[in-house]
């Protein structure tokens, strides 16, 4: 075995295999050693002892070094030191339980995958180290120094959701996390800013604490409210306002007339590249088998009930839930599956017409329905066809044999709030149509939409005269009759300078959110051990 990795001055006295363990007995050959205090060389050996550090595993075999260490007398009369132990600064630190190279590797592993993960990974590599030791090594790593950032991003992150929060500080110019703070109080941020003077721009969310902290810690710095959070505030205001006008949304827009469609002459040709589904015959076989099994169980349930067993006893015996047994017995008859989804009811005439023609398979019927605008799954059609074949009658529809007109899905408050706030150029034609349908017949909706778009386009386009336009928008909002919009105007007025910053400056918290995401990932990797010091090590160093 090659042991050339050992320091040149070391002599290998013996290598012993103890089970899986490899033990290397070594000794320093140099006759003179320097005193660590005065650097005087001494050859006067006072005593010996043995150190037992671990080293990197060799071929998955744990390695322990037995280092014969000498204690020397310092012969320099001016030195306070009487005796000293010989040292190998690059190889083995005083009192260390592992060689420097092993400690370095283990702390790097702890940095990347955490204590528990590192412990398991090292086990695979043949090095036995506890998770706690890895974390101790991690804590010992020096944190990187940083120059005070000119543009600082500030955001919060949670240690425990809704309970304890911390603050992450980012150098937005260098794309680097500079520090983590233990809470999200104004005073803590102010103190940090006072300790690190020179920050010129602070990008933050809309939290009042950060605004106050930044103002008192760095009064000369320009504050910027994050655009993402501003859009969030706007959308919230729109949502609240819409909630008070639900009746306007409830009144569904005019149904879109759909031409009555009759059955095509022949099945539609299927494109060859389409992946094959399970065959209809295969599906039917499964359906039939399941039904037979259910029928058998039902008979068993009925028999046991007639014999005077309790519901619970029957459920245990047959292997069904007690509620199912109750339901079956209450119905007095073999329980058939419930009616397939009603979304297919309006296609029932089409399905029946195609079923009447022998050569149509369920797959072809499904394709024909998709052509007519059916958006459901194949399995729904398959079940429906089976249900019709069993002799069931679909409920009558108004316009047989064609399709009934489509009644559009009503939009919810949240969906409409998006229609109000998104860039109109980015809406799909369908979204544009829905928005027009809604606001065209609703003057107040039209006015609010115009007002909101005025504000969002201001944030999106960032014109040079942004602050004047924002001031005039706030005045319009305050003069409006809508309480929610007035409230939005008041909150924007209070944070006016920072919002002007958001309009006129290129900085935002987008990058900060990315760093928070990374922090969360690291935190969750560490299970419950993500204390601030450990988290800081891994976020700043990894
Ligand atoms: Zn000395």
SSE layout and pairing:
Elements: E1 10-18, E2 21-28, E3 33-34, E4 41-42, E5 45-51, E6 54-58, E7 61-73, E8 83-85, H1 100-124, H2 131-140, E9 151-160, E10 164-171, E11 176-181, H3 186-195, E12 201-204, H4 208-217, E13 222-225, H5 227-243, H6 246-250, H7 280-306, H8 311-318, H9 322-331, H10 348-356, H11 362-371, H12 378-389, H13 413-421, H14 429-440, H15 443-461, H16 466-479, H17 483-494, H18 496-504, H19 510-525, H20 532-541
Parallel strand pairs: 2-7, 9-12, 12-13
Antiparallel strand pairs: 1-2, 3-4, 5-7, 6-7, 7-8, 9-10, 10-11
Helix pairs in contact: 1-2, 3-4, 5-13, 5-17, 7-8, 8-9, 11-12, 15-16, 16-17, 16-18
Protein name: ISL3 family transposase
InterPro entries: Transpos_ISL3, Transposase_DDE, Transposase_Znf
Domain Transposase IS204/IS1001/IS1096/IS1165 zinc-finger: 34-75
Keywords:
single chain; 542 residues; alpha+beta; Nucleotidyltransferase, domain 5; 4 domains; six-stranded mixed β-sheet; five-stranded mixed β-sheet; 15% strand; flat; binds zinc ion
Structure write-up:
The chain has 542 residues and is of the alpha+beta class. It folds into four domains: 10-139, no CATH class; 151-226 and 508-541, 2-Layer Sandwich (Nucleotidyltransferase, domain 5); 237-252 and 411-499, no CATH class; 280-389, no CATH class. It is 47% helix and 15% strand. It is built from 20 helices and 13 strands. It has helices spanning 100-124, 131-140, 186-195, 208-217, 227-243, 246-250, 280-306, 311-318, 322-331, 348-356, 362-371, 378-389, 413-421, 429-440, 443-461, 466-479, 483-494, 496-504, 510-525, 532-541, and strands at residues 10-18, 21-28, 33-34, 41-42, 45-51, 54-58, 61-73, 83-85, 151-160, 164-171, 176-181, 201-204, 222-225. Strands 1, 2, 5, 6, 7 and 8 form a six-stranded mixed sheet that branches. It has a five-stranded mixed sheet with strand order 11-10-9-12-13, sandwiched between helices. Helix 4 (208-217) links the parallel strand 12 and strand 13 (222-225). Helix 1 runs antiparallel to helix 2 (131-140), helix 7 (280-306) crosses helix 8 and helix 11 (362-371) crosses helix 12. The protein is flat. It starts with 9 loop residues before the first strand and ends with a helix. Bound molecules: zinc ion. Zinc ion binds next to loops. This is ISL3 family transposase. InterPro entries: Transpos_ISL3, Transposase_DDE, Transposase_Znf. Pfam families: DDE_Tnp_ISL3, Zn_ribbon_ISL3.
């Amino acid at each position: 075995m090659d042991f050339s990795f050992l320091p040149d001055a070391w002599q290998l006295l013996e290598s012993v295999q103890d089970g899986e363990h490899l033990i290397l007995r070594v000794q320093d050959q140099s006759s003179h050693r320097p005193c660590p205090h005065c650097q005087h060389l001494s050859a006067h050996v006072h005593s010996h002892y043995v150190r037992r550090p671990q080293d990197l595993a060799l071929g998955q075999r744990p390695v322990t070094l037995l280092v014969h260490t000498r204690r020397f007398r310092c012969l320099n009369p001016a030195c306070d030191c009487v005796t000293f132990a010989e040292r190998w600064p690059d190889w083995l630190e005083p009192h260390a339980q592992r060689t420097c190279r092993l400690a370095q590797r283990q702390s790097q592993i702890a940095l990347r995958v955490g204590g528990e993960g590192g412990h398991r990974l090292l086990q695979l590599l043949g090095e036995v180290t506890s998770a706690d030791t890895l974390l101790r090594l991690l804590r010992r790593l020096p944190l990187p120094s940083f120059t005070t950032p000119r543009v600082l991003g500030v955001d919060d992150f949670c240690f425990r959701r809704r309970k304890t929060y911390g603050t992450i500080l980012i150098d937005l110019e260098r794309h680097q996390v500079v520090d983590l703070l233990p809470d999200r109080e104004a005073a803590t941020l102010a103190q940090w800013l006072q300790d690190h003077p020179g920050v010129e721009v602070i990008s933050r969310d809309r939290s009042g604490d950060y605004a106050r902290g930044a103002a008192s810690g760095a009064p000369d710095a320009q504050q910027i409210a994050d655009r993402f959070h501003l859009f969030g505030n706007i959308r919230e205001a729109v949502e609240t306002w819409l909630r008070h006008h639900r009746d306007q949304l409830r009144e569904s827009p005019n149904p879109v007339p759909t031409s009555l469609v009759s059955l095509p002459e022949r099945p539609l040709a299927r494109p060859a590249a389409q992946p094959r589904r399970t065959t209809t015959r295969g599906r039917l076989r499964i359906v039939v088998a399941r039904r037979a099994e259910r029928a058998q169980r039902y008979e068993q349930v009925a028999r046991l009930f007639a014999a005077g067993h309790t519901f619970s006893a029957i459920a245990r015996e047959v292997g069904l839930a007690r509620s199912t047994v109750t339901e079956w017995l209450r119905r007095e008859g073999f329980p058939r599956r419930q009616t397939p989804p009603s979304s297919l009811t309006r296609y029932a005439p089409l399905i029946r017409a195609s079923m009447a023609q022998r050569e149509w398979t369920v797959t072809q019927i499904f394709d024909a329905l998709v052509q007519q605008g059916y958006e459901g799954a194949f399995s729904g059609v398959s079940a429906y066809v089976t249900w019709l074949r069993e002799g069931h009658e679909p409920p009558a529809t108004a316009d047989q044999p064609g399709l009934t007109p489509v009644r559009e899905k009503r939009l919810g408050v949240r969906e409409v709030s998006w229609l109000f706030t998104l860039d109109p150029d980015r809406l799909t034609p369908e979204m544009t149509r829905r928005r027009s349908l809604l606001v065209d017949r609703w003057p107040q909706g039209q006015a609010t939409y115009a007002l909101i778009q005025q504000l969002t386009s201001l944030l999106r386009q960032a014109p040079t005269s942004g602050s004047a336009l924002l001031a005039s928008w706030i005045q319009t909002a305050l003069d409006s009759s809508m309480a929610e919009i007035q409230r939005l105007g008041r909150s924007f007025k209070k944070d006016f300078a920072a919002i002007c910053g958001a309009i006129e400056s290129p900085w935002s918290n987008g990058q900060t959110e990315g760093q928070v995401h990374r922090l969360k990932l690291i935190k969750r990797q560490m299970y419950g051990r993500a204390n601030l010091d450990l988290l800081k090590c891994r976020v700043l160093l990894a």
